[in-house]
Amino acid sequence: MQRNISFLALIFALSGCVEEAPPAVTKPEQVLSAPLVSQEVVQSWMKKAKFDELRGDFSAAAQSYTGAVHADPSSREARLGLASAHRHLGEYDKAFAIYTDLLKADPNSLEAKEGGALTLIAKGDFDSSIALLDEVIKADPRRPEALNGMGVLFTTRNMQPEAQQYFIEALKFSPNNATIIGNFGLSQALQGKYKEAGAALSQASAAATPGSYERKRADMSAALVHAAAGRAEDALAIAGAYYGGAEYNTALGLYAKLAKDKKMAASYIRSALTGGRTYYEQGWDTLATSATR
Fold first, then answer.
1. Torsion-angle region of residue 56: left (phi > 0), alpha (psi -120 to 50) or beta?
2. Whole-number Å distance between alpha carbons of 32 and 51
3. Taking the CA of residue 257 as centre, how many other CA atoms within 13 Å lie in the half-sphere pointing to its CB?
4. What is the Cα–Cα distance from 140 to 292, expressed in whole angstroms?
5. How many CA atoms lie less than 13 Å away from 290 in the CB half-sphere?
6. On the CB side of 165, how many CA atoms lie within 13 Å of its CA?
7. Is 190:160 a contact under the CB 8 Å cutoff?
8. Which of 72, 69, 43, 48 is nearest to 60 (CA)?
């Protein structure tokens, strides 16, 4: 499998949960005015950022990471977190600029290379990330995000068996990863294997923390698969746990269209896999403003 990955990586490239309340944190103006900022303040910002990410509020996460960066501009972890938050918000140029700066400081940073590649794929650039992902996988073939991303890229070429090999390999190093399991299911859906896809997405939902962004992503991907299979009512039953009122009616209309249009459904599934804005702007993510890619 490792030789297969190394060879294929030269051709392809990659795209692309709440347990307790966050602690009170120092206000931004207090951080910025302090002559010396303690690591306790930095860690407070970081803890809140992780909490924001867990519940899928990447706008709040970006603000929290910004606070951490202001408090400690040398914090590589905070800058990586801020780039990731921008990427999830679809602010790809901001994200890529941070990854680029990190690579200037450390040209061997696998995290920055991996994040940069994910950003390019999410932006819809499936070619420019070849070199970045190839370097990451050659340096460390055990990185689940890079392997998962390579799998996602194969789905864009409609090479589902090859994509699924990468997802399976990624799961060896990150078992019960809801995102990877979900992507495996979506790849199966693109093959028309809706029953298998539904089972995988149920597993992804179970693997995610209740109330988390990842749980919602798995559930709404399952709804998408139901719609693609022509079961709009089943799709709506899942979406109904998240939406009500006008949003519920919007979801109903969307799933009814997907159930009748296989080509449109496949497009949404691919966008759900790559993180493209088509799915998230026109699909379930715009039904609730609190949920973003």
1. left
2. 22
3. 13
4. 30
5. 12
6. 10
7. yes
8. 48
- Do the beta carbons of residue 161 and residue 37 sit within 8 Å? no
Distance, CA of 160 to chain centre: 19
Residue owning tokens 């924001």: 52
The predicted model scores a pTM of 0.79
Taking the mean position of all CA atoms in its chain, how far away is CA 291? Answer: 12
Gyration radius from the chain CA atoms:
19
- Sign of dihedral through CA atoms 80, 83, 87, 92? negative
Q: Residue 118: how many CB atoms within 10 A of its CB?
A: 31
- Distance between CA atoms of residues 50 and 31, nearest Å: 19
**Residue-by-residue pLDDT tens, the chain, 293 positions:** 544 544 344 344 333 444 444 555 555 555 444 445 678 899 999 999 999 998 889 999 999 999 999 999 999 999 999 999 999 998 999 999 999 999 999 999 999 999 999 999 888 888 888 788 889 999 999 999 999 999 999 998 899 999 999 999 999 999 999 999 999 999 999 999 999 999 999 999 999 999 888 899 999 999 999 999 999 999 999 988 888 888 888 888 889 999 999 999 999 999 888 875 444 444 444 443 332 23
